[in-house]
Structure formats: C-alpha cells, structure tokens
Design goal:
394 residues; Rossmann fold; binds magnesium ion; binds nicotinamide-adenine-dinucleotide; four-stranded mixed sheet; alpha/beta
Length: 394
C-alpha cells in the first residue's frame, strides 16, 4: 500500500488532496503517515481520524491540548510547532504533499527530499526561496519533485518528457485576478474583500490576493525558471481571463502545446498523485462548443509591478528569491491588516530588495539553508520597517 503525508492538510490544496485520497478509498487504499495543519485542529483531527494517520501535527502550540483531546483514544500521535512539522517529514512516506503556504513550507519539503521521497509541490514559495538547493537536494537523494501549481503541472504535461533543449519558450497564463478590469487609478483603494473576489479559482486567502496583484504570477515565473531550468527570457506571461488554458510550451519548430481543462486544482493534485499513470478524476469536463471563445491579452506592467520585479530577481539570483518572497509575505500581512494599500505592496517589496541588495550573493551557487533562512529573516525585518513607514501614506 502506498504511504502518503500531507503538509498543510487543512488548507485549500490540502483539503482537495484529502478529498482525492478519500474518493480513492481512503484508509483502505493509502497508509497515511503524517497530516499537518496550522491552528484548525478540529478539522485536522477529523481528517486524521478519517485517514487513520499515524500522527497529526499543528503549527500552533496553543492548540496542542485541543488536538490531543480531539484524538484521544484513537492511537494517533499528536505534536505541535514548526520543529515537529519538520520532524514529521522524516517519517517514511512514498508520496508527500507540500501544501503549507509561504516560506514555512521550505524546511519540511527539504527534509522529505533528503529521504528520497516523491514531493508533490504546491508550495511554490520554497522553489522561489531556495530553488537551487531544492532541485540539487532532490537530484542528490534520488527524490522527485512533481509540480502541483496548475501552470507548472500544465507545462510538465505539455513537455511530455521531451528534451528541454527543444523548448523555445514557456507561456504562463494568468487570469488577472479579481481586479483585472478595474481602472488603474482605483487599485490604490482596493480592499481585501475586493481583492478576494477571484473570477475563476477558489483558493486560500493569500494566493487569491497574490493573484490580484500578480505577485502569484511573479512567483510562478521564478518557479518556472527554477523547476524547468529555462532562461528567464524564455518565460512569457499572457493574460487569459477564462483560465481554461493552464499554460503552454512553445517548441523550436514553432509548435505550441497547450494544456486545457476546467479550473480545478484536483486535476493537478490528482495528476501528481497518480503520476506516471492517469486515473479518472472528479473534475468537470470542458464543453468547447459552450466555451466558444478563448481570449488573450498582454499584461500591463504598470498595473502589475510584480511582473517587472521578478525579472530583477531572476537576473540577480543568489538570495534574491528568498528576499523577494519574504518581503512579499510581509507586505501581504500589512495589506491584510489594513496598514498599507493594495498597490503599496509592490513598493514594500521593491524598497526591501534595494535595502538588502548588498547581501544578495548574486549568481547561481548553491547557498546553504542557513544563508537562505538568514535572508528570509532579514528581508522580513526590513520589509516590516518599510511597511510601517508607508502606513497611513496611501
Ligand atoms: P491555505 O492558506 O488554504 O492553506 C495553507 C495550509 O498551511 C493550511 O493547512 C494552514 O494551516 C497551513 N499553514 C499556514 N501557515 C503555516 C505555518 N506557518 N506553518 C505550518 N503550517 C501552516 O493555502 P492554499 O491556498 O492551500 O495554498 C497552499 C500552497 O499551495 C501555497 O504555497 C500556494 O501558493 C500553493 N497553491 C495553491 C493553490 C490553490 O488553489 N489554493 C494553487 C496553486 C498553488
Ligand atoms: Mg498557479
């Protein structure tokens, strides 16, 4: 029986992974090792019971007593804290879903790779923060990373094992997010609720707002560079409001392979779960006559400064990805808390990058985890200072 673990089980991707495991037979079909969550321990306990997991771990230490009570008498172990989550990644599991949000997903993913596991990677922040380290750790331990981000799953499928040297360009599609049709001048006053109204995808709060600002697409451009090893100038972004083409690969003979489907993450999660075969999945089938039209347009960089910033990050490399992601996470925290405006998030990230520029160690050397976590910390401190200075100046 295949053994599985889910990191970030109680989130949007985690829930959909759980759904697919249950539909495929649950505890009769999978030996579930570890499930982790943040503070929603009631849901975590329910999932652990349903899948008969070996251990359930919550990030929030204050919730450990509640988790223990909820699982008493089941024989399921419980633990809490970031250290316990990372330790859970040392437990043997054939397939590990990395679906924690943010740089907090990096260490558990890295630990799983060190044991040669197959890592289904939804946590794009770990590739942005530590791409070279992650890819080299996978290679040196015989581990495999399968992309779960819908664009990267689409690219992986469109590539179909062809030689990457035959690829001329990769075209990432972007919905444009909730505010794509707003006048540019009104974006400054967009609220969290408005930025959360994604037209096509139902996702966690942070990635939904990152979709509206296109910080999500900026992370995905870097993720593409790190995962597929193509040059930055081979990566294009196109606005595709219908979100039915999930990305495209253009080959040197001019052919373009596009991956299409309903906007449902259970496709890319299920693909990674069943790879290298394909299983029937409970996703809606496209009725192309009904769809009738697919539209595309070039993204406006004035509206999406994140798409410009990610180019600088890829030119610098080194610790720039770690700084970019950390500053973005902090800027988002301040937007969520109401301190800064929607368009000021990019300003926080840009200022932070320039403040830490002397410490970015340019180039593509493999940096240590300590270097990366050090930059993650420094960029959060600097970004916090920048954001506090901006507060109230909207
Ligand atoms: P989410 O916010 O819905 O869930 C995140 C999960 O991580 C939850 O279980 C939460 O409790 C846990 N978590 C949060 N902070 C934590 C911390 N500090 N330590 C440990 N656990 C923590 O997020 P999501 O939308 O499911 O996204 C998860 C990841 O997948 C992100 O990296 C996101 O970019 C990526 N992704 C998501 C989607 C989607 O459709 N939701 C699509 C593509 C990629
Ligand atoms: Mg995506």
């Amino acid at each position: 029986m295949r053994s599985v673990s889910i990191f970030g089980a109680t989130g949007s991707v985690g829930e959909q992974t759980f759904d697919l495991l249950m539909r495929a037979g649950g505890p009769a079909a999978f030996d579930t090792v570890a499930l982790t969550g943040g503070s929603n321990v009631m849901r975590l306990a329910e999932m652990a019971r349903a899948l008969r997991a070996d251990i359930a771990v919550c990030a929030d230490d204050s919730q450990l007593p509640a988790l223990r009570t909820a699982l008493s008498g089941t024989g399921i172990e419980v633990a809490s804290g970031a250290g316990a989550i990372a330790d859970a990644a040392d437990r043997p599991a054939d397939w590990v879903m990395s679906a924690i949000v943010g740089a907090a997903g990096l260490v558990p993913g890295l630990r799983a790779l060190r044991h040669g596991r197959t890592l289904a990677l939804a946590n794009k922040e770990s590739l942005v923060t530590a791409g070279t380290l992650l890819m080299q750790t996978a290679a040196s331990h015989g581990a495999r990373i399968l992309p779960v981000d819908s664009e990267h799953s689409a690219i992986f499928q469109a590539l179909n094992n062809e030689d990457i040297a035959c690829v001329e360009r990769i075209i990432l599609t972007a919905s444009g997010g909730a505010l794509r049709d707003w006048p540019l001048a009104s974006l400054a006053t967009a609220t969290v609720r408005e930025a959360m109204a994604h037209p096509n995808w139902a996702m966690g709060q942070r990635i939904t707002i990152d979709s509206a600002s296109m910080f999500n697409k900026a992370l995905e451009v870097i993720e593409t560079r790190e995962f597929f090893g193509v040059d930055p100038d081979q990566i294009e972004v196109i606005l595709h409001p219908e979100s039915l083409i999930h990305s495209m690969v253009g080959f040197r003979d001019g052919a373009i392979m596009a991956h299409m489907g309903a906007p449902d993450m259970r496709h890319s999660i299920g693909y990674a779960l069943n790879w290298p075969t394909r299983a029937a999945l409970p996703v809606a089938r496209l009725d192309l006559a009904q769809v009738a039209t697919l539209t595309f347009r070039a993204p406006d960089l004035a509206r999406y400064p994140a798409l410009r910033l990610c180019r600088d990050v890829m030119a610098t490399r080194g610790l720039a990805g770690a700084a970019f992601n950390a500053a973005k996470e902090l800027a988002l925290d301040h937007f969520l808390a109401g301190g800064i405006g929607f368009m000021q998030m990019a300003g926080v990230v840009e200022d932070t990058l320039s403040q830490v520029s002397a410490e970015l160690c340019q180039g593509n050397a493999v940096l240590t985890l300590e270097d990366i976590l050090g930059m993650d910390h420094l960029a959060r401190v600097r970004a916090g200072e920048v954001a506090r200075r901006m507060t109230g100046s909207r």
